[in-house]
Amino acid sequence: MASMLLTSLRSSPLTSVQTAQFAARSLSTSVHLQAQAKSKKTLTKPGLKNIVLVDGVRTPFLLSGTTYADLMPHDLARAALQGLLNRTGIPKDAVDYIVYGEVIQEVKTSNVAREAALGAGFSDKTPAHTVTMACISSNQAMTTAVGLIAAGQCDTVVAGGVEFMSDVPIRHSRRMRKTMLSLNKAKTLGARLSLLGSIRLAHLAPELPAVAEFSTAETMGHSADRLAAAFGVTRLEQDEFALRSHSLAKKAQDSGLLSDVISFKVPGKDIVSKDNGIRPSTMEQLAKLKPAFIKPHGTVTAANSSFLTDGASAVLIMSEEKALAMGYKPKAYLRDFVYVSQDPKDQLLLGPTYSTPKVLERSGLTMNDIDVFEFHEAFAGQIMANLKAMDSDWFAQTYMGRKSKVGVPPMEKFNTWGGSLSLGHPFGATGCRLVTTVAHRLQKEGGQYGLVAACAAGGQGHAMVIEAYPQ
CA nearest 447: which of 369, 371, 360? Predict the structure, then answer.
């Protein structure tokens, strides 16, 4: 499909995409629109509960191998939960359920939601479970919370996510594991000696966590490079978008806009209070980097990709009725959401393209109704490819069964406080960051509707519409 996309897209009328590219190229760190409050319809539906985001927090997102290096995932998750308790003042026994997302799980704390909740002091009578859906794991945690409340099972749910890439499980080879399990069952000394004698040096080679898609054996970075090539996304465009992300994140950080970040005292080390991966550079410096995946002619580099990150997030989700009864002023309504799946080989990272029109249709909205866009930035090439796909009638008609394109988000509304390329991407925690950022941006800019969209491994994706709570 990649070659077909490349040929067809280059010959199809995509002139409006050039406008989006120009906007991305010309945006400076000073761009920050104050959207005027609009008198739009509310998405409240008769007979359905209003479900609200009361607040959200996250630990600082740090480059893996830095200050968090000696911790465990549940340490970060516990810190996020404690930060949420401190921020909201919610009584610990008032929480009905806890759901957490995590991708690469520490085997000692496989249900990290439960271990972190107990460590944070939540009641041992509060159930907790962990979900995994690659980069949209905490999105799944939040929508699971929405489902529990909508079904009448709960009124108050804490959702979140955590990822800890500084220490990942590394296994013995399968042959060695089988030998060790057999040793454990051997009943005689002779049997044990025989098994020990069967061990060869090759059996001792470790088995590292998979960094490739199981179904295709291809790394996500390799897929991003092919996707960028298929949509004609240049190295220059990718570097420009990466620089934009870091520049906007730096401005947001310096302006105190990243208010969801809580300070965390790392045991034996200093207090950490801000993300450490935000590093504005220059186009000249970015241009010097070599391709990271497809060598020597690829366009995806370490600088225009999201980096390995440690971090955790947590949000308090409630029924509106319960929140008001407890004296809270919610930040936003959590409205419609969708999950999508595509071909994991050639469309691995196109989740936003497929999920955005579906969630807008469910909500009865158009792109023009959205005031705030927050898309997960896995790779700059992935973002630019999605923008081109969203702005292509040909792609919509050929691959999505749609009559016309959904359209491209205006860049002045798009990820204006930075994104995963600059803030970091702890796989299991990013979804909550996206939703909390939308709520904060809607409050700051006076908008009414926000849209979150993200891609994930396995060719999956998610989108959600968030409505500002009346101020």
Answer: 371
Annotated catalytic residues are 135, 455
Q: Report which residue type is found at 408.
A: V
**Contact, 337 vs 462, CB < 8 A?**
yes
Kind of pairing between the strands at 51-58 and 309-319 = antiparallel
pLDDT per position as a tens digit, 342-374: 999 999 999 999 999 999 999 999 999 999 999
Q: How far is the CA of 442 from the CAs of 33, 445, 466, in angstroms? A: 11, 5, 9
* DSSP calls for 276-324: S------HHHHHTPPPSSSTTT----STTBPPPEEEEEEEEEEEHHHHH
Cβ atoms of residues 224 and 377 within 8 Å: no
The residue type found at 1 is M
CA distances from 284 to 228, 239, 281, 288, 423 (A): 21, 10, 8, 7, 22
Residue 176 has pLDDT above 60, yes or no: yes
**What's the mean pLDDT in 380-386?**
98
Structure tokens at 255: 């302006």
Question: So what's the pLDDT on residue 471?
Answer: 85
Distance (Å, whole) CA 241 – CA 235 = 10
Q: Are strands 128-131 and 97-101 parallel, antiparallel or unpaired?
A: parallel
Kindly report the pTM of this predicted structure. Answer: 0.91
> Rounded distance, CA 285 to CA 33, Å?
29
The dihedral built from the CA positions of residue 57, 61, 66 and 72, taken in this order, carries a sign that is: positive
Q: How much of the chain exceeds pLDDT 90, in percent?
A: 87
